[in-house]
């Protein structure tokens, strides 16, 4: 005797998707959010928008902010893996956040950036203190941008580097 799986009787089961009009994420999405780094906020609203984002969870601090040069720093404390060194995912999050903030600053009017490709290389471990991400553009076009990010420790040694490719998408209502 075998039990028949009720899902295999050929009956289509409805799938629970939100209505097309429902927005599953807040709009605008703040820079550094785990959902996306898009934001239509200006710099004045950025601090309030960071509450509850990955940027605040990892205690990232925005030091400089422009499309040509953005600097974000983050403490190693709270971002370690079990071996005591900074987690690679934390450095990837720092790289994507720094590049996304720069891309947002350089976004053409009526658009907002969404990351499409993140590449990260880890060069040496960071064990303590703060790491700093410095972002510069490699390409800034009408529909895409590519940013290079170098992450260094407090002694100026590069611990990681990466690139983020962004696609500029139209902002709702623009």
TrEMBL record:
Thioesterase domain location: 84-159
Pfam families: 4HBT
PANTHER family the UniProt entry points to: 1,4-DIHYDROXY-2-NAPHTHOYL-COA THIOESTERASE 1
Protein name: PaaI family thioesterase
Tagged with keyword DNA repair: no
Keyword Hydrolase applies: yes
Coiled coil: none
Signal peptide: none
Similarity comment: family membership: Belongs to the thioesterase PaaI family.
InterPro entries to which the protein is assigned, alphabetical: HotDog_dom_sf, PAAI_dom, Thioestr_dom
Record keywords: Hydrolase
Superkingdom of the organism of origin: Bacteria
């Amino acid at each position: 005797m075998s039990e028949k799986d009720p899902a295999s009787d050929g009956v289509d089961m409805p799938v629970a998707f939100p209505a097309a009009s429902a927005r599953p994420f807040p709009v605008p999405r703040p820079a550094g959010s785990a959902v996306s780094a898009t934001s239509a906020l200006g710099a004045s609203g950025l601090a309030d928008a960071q509450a509850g984002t990955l940027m605040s969870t990892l205690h990232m601090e925005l030091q400089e902010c422009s499309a040509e040069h953005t600097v974000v720093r983050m403490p190693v404390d709270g971002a370690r893996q079990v071996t005591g060194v900074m987690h690679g995912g934390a450095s990837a999050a720092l790289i994507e956040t720094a590049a996304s903030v720069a891309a947002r600053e350089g976004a053409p009017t009526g658009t907002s950036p969404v990351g499409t490709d993140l590449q990260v290389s880890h060069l040496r471990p960071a064990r303590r203190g703060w790491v700093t991400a410095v972002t510069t553009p490699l390409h800034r076009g009408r529909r895409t941008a590519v940013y290079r990010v170098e992450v260094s420790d407090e002694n100026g040694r590069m611990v990681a580097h990466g690139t983020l490719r962004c696609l500029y998408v139209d902002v709702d209502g623009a």
